[in-house]
Amino acid sequence: MNYSKSLKLSILTSLCLFSTSCLSAKTYHLPEGYEALDGCTKQEALWKKIVSSKHKELPEFKSFGALQLMAMGVQELTKKKARQSDVAPKGWKKYLHRRGSIAKVKIVPVEGQPYSGIFKGAPCALLRLSITYKPTKKRKFAPGLALKIFRSKEPSANVSALYKLDGQGDNYNFFENPLSNIVPIGDGIGLKLVHTIFKRVSDYPEEILIDHLASIDSKGERYSNPVSPRQIFFVPQGNLKFSSSKHDIREDFHSIPEGTVIYRLYAAPEKYNQFNYDNYTDENIKEFVAESTPIADIVSTSPFISSEFGDVGLFFRHELRP
Fold first, then answer.
1. Domain containing 141: what range?
2. Mean pLDDT over residues 67-77, rounded?
């Protein structure tokens, strides 16, 4: 081991010992031959782990401060975009979106929508809802989601979405605003530091690519000419309205019944494919959503559950723009 890598590991170990940043270093294993299974069998294998590790009492949200930020910078962020597995690698530490709730969902396409692959529908997926960090006076309520869509004999398709990096103020209604795979660059010192950390692996850390969702469908069939939007919006449906005052939002998730349309998925117009997102603003969010077209519904096929495996064992790959 070279000196530089040894020093990084020593720093990270010290940070873990003297902070609450390391939720778990447990190793999770998948069934033998997992990748060759059909998509819904994969979903069920992971769902069993989620259910079996369900929290008897909801664990507290932990603070995200300087120590956690330093440790996240030391961690090899390239794993987030290079790892294909559905479970976290050995020693992986989750610093953001640590606590959340997860449900089985399906993707139901809008008839006539033009996009290929997963956008044509998928019967088996997992949707995890969480906040980026514990809200404080300085760090506001910041909702986010991660969607894992299973494909037969192929790695899962993954996408993450936020509203804005700095959240939505003191409004605790998780479903107040649409979430997207592209967000404005943050202004605060902390957000600029996070931006710098993720710049290690991408020149565009505020954009998650989604063209891989269009290249392979849920049956594992590949498209020679995939068709994908650049930006999508997860627009909450009108029946999902909860209190805007401070509370544990996981209780809201747990009250959502199976069979609920959680989000309607919208695609931004093609004319924005060449848009310079360095100049993306809050006003652009409203404008782009207003001009977007619906392409699919995300419908729950189970209740939401909060669990240890769902919090620290399940791994969502990030397709960062090169």
1. 3-321
2. 52
